[in-house]
Amino acid sequence: MTMTWHVLGAGSLGSLWAARLARAGLPVRLLLRDRARLATYRAAGGLTLVEHGQSSLYPIAAQTPADSTPIRLLLLACKAYDAEAAVASLAHRLTADAELILLQNGMGSQDAAAARLPRTRCILASSTEGAFRDGDFRVVFAGHGYTWLGDPLDPTPPTWLEQLGSTGIPHQWTPDILTRLWRKLALNCAINPLTVLYDCRNGGLLEHPAEVATLCAELGELLSLCGQPAAAEQLEEEVERVIKATAANYSSMHQDVAQGRRTEISFLLGHACAVAHRHQHELPHLNALHGRLVSHLNARGLPTQ
Ligand code: NAP
């Protein structure tokens, strides 16, 4: 039986997923924040996906969490800081065999969301796809990539994985999803905060090789401490490679700060420092970086959590 995909969050990634699921003929329902957002969405006539400069409108059915229809499959596509509350608002609608896919970047929000739903299977995702909004309910597919999916508690692939094969969404089921999430978090911690503090593109970090190397060494210690030694392998080399390959880009955290948007700091560098602290392990440079980033955000009136 074809399952209905409920997608919470019609932002960049949520819209990118919803449009491609709908295009493949799968049943999709968007979950929007409230009645006001629903009215705006209906006035827009649907979601617009811009690919290779071409816009297509997808009139996907939408509802709010207050709707009463049951949810078997939920794709959570909000920011990490909204994940726990969003899941809590839908808990009463999830069926006994419901599954949740968590698309959030970083770490920490997945555990918080899962703790709200102790009986629901939670599948974690790590994506290198890129999308941004250029208007309300309009999303631009900016960077092709890949999405890894996995369940740290159960290596059995879910039944809906086959449906995903028909959508053209590049993906792979992996038993090592935690390693992937930790590796991505480490790359993010080594690059994004410094781009904010130096107000530079990723390539600007080529002028700060010693600082990047010191952070990579501490991140490697952290990953080993967390039982993720594979995520620490050749971290510094990959960070250097990413900095060079994306030299002309502004990091996501830089873009958030430049546009006065809340960052996901608590689920990235903040999470790294909190885990080290919990293990009573000293990571002086990461802690100092976190302190500088918090001051920077405070000075701009942005949340530091
Ligand atoms: P986004 O564009 O800000 O979209 C998030 C959406 O979630 C917004 O539309 C927001 O609604 C909605 N939302 C939040 N709480 C909600 C609730 N309770 N009910 C209904 N809707 C709710 O964020 P994004 O860029 O897609 O990022 C989502 C996650 O994917 C983040 O963790 C990000 O780091 C990760 N990620 C993003 C990309 C990318 O290229 N964008 C790539 C890789 C990973 P409103 O519009 O009403 O505020």
Automatic annotation (TrEMBL):
Any one Pfam family match given in the protein's UniProt record, by short name: ApbA
Keywords tagged on the record: NADP, Oxidoreductase, Pantothenate biosynthesis
EC number: 1.1.1.169
Catalytic activity: (R)-pantoate + NADP(+) = 2-dehydropantoate + NADPH + H(+)
Every Ketopantoate reductase C-terminal domain range: 176-291
Enzyme class, broadest EC rank: oxidoreductase
GO molecular function: 2-dehydropantoate 2-reductase activity; NADP binding
UniProt GO cellular component terms: cytoplasm
InterPro entries assigned: 6-PGluconate_DH-like_C_sf (IPR008927), 6PGD_dom2 (IPR013328), ApbA (IPR003710), Ketopantoate_reductase (IPR050838), KPA_reductase (IPR013752), KPR_N (IPR013332), NAD(P)-bd_dom_sf (IPR036291)
Recorded metabolic or biological pathway in which this protein acts: Cofactor biosynthesis; (R)-pantothenate biosynthesis; (R)-pantoate from 3-methyl-2-oxobutanoate: step 2/2
Domain annotation Ketopantoate reductase N-terminal: ranges: 5-151
Gene Ontology BP annotations: pantothenate biosynthetic process
Summary of the function given for this chain in its UniProt record: Catalyzes the NADPH-dependent reduction of ketopantoate into pantoic acid.
Family in the record: Belongs to the ketopantoate reductase family.
Protein name in the entry: 2-dehydropantoate 2-reductase
Organism (species): Pseudomonas cavernicola
